[in-house]
Amino acid sequence: MELRKQIEAVFQPLIGRKVWGASIGWGSFATLEFGRRRLSHHHYHGEWHLWLYQCDWQLYSRGRLLADSESKKRLMQLAIDNLNGEALTQVDLDRQKMATEFTFGQDLRLICKAYSDAVDDEECWMLFLPDRQVVSLLKSGLHRESQESKPERSLSQQ
């Protein structure tokens, strides 16, 4: 199956679900929560937990850049707060740029792409699923594994 279709299928259960707990973590890591709250590694996350990890990202509202992964931390948090309460409406992939575009509501677009110098096994983003699996976008494609295979240290830095 084509990568774009695989990504659409992974995110299909999230279409129409609202974001809560959107936050900036260590560095420019950004996390978005969807679904019911769950305690995991001493932190509350959603049943679905999207972690923008080793990537450049930009958040746009009506075509205007609100912040990106190079912005000051306070500006990143203020911008990402705009996603709280907004429903995910679409996920798309530009395979040539390896850029994933997440659309929320009518006017918010979050675009993330792998670092230009990323190695093949470096995660651009990770989606933690209710069944305790993690789907990651790598330069080489999608990868699925058990959450238990992720180091606890990395999960607690979200």
Main features:
158 residues, mainly beta, ibrinogen binding protein from staphylococcus aureus fold, 6-stranded antiparallel β-sheet, 3 helices
Describe the structure in your own words:
The chain has 158 residues and is mostly beta strands. It has one domain: ibrinogen binding protein from staphylococcus aureus fold, CATH 2.30.310. Helix content is 14%, strand content 47%. The protein contains 3 helices and 11 strands, in the order αβββββαββββββα. The protein has a 6-stranded antiparallel sheet. The longest helix is centred in the N-terminal third of the chain and has 9 residues, at 3-11. The protein starts with a helix and ends with a helix.
Walk across the major sheet and give the strand order.
Answer: 1-2-3-9-10-11
DSSP strand tally? 11
Order of helices and strands: HEEEEEHEEEEEEH
Strand content: over 45%
What is the overall silhouette?
Answer: globular
End-to-end Cα distance, whole Å, is 30 Å
Overall tally of structural domains? 1
CATH architecture: Roll
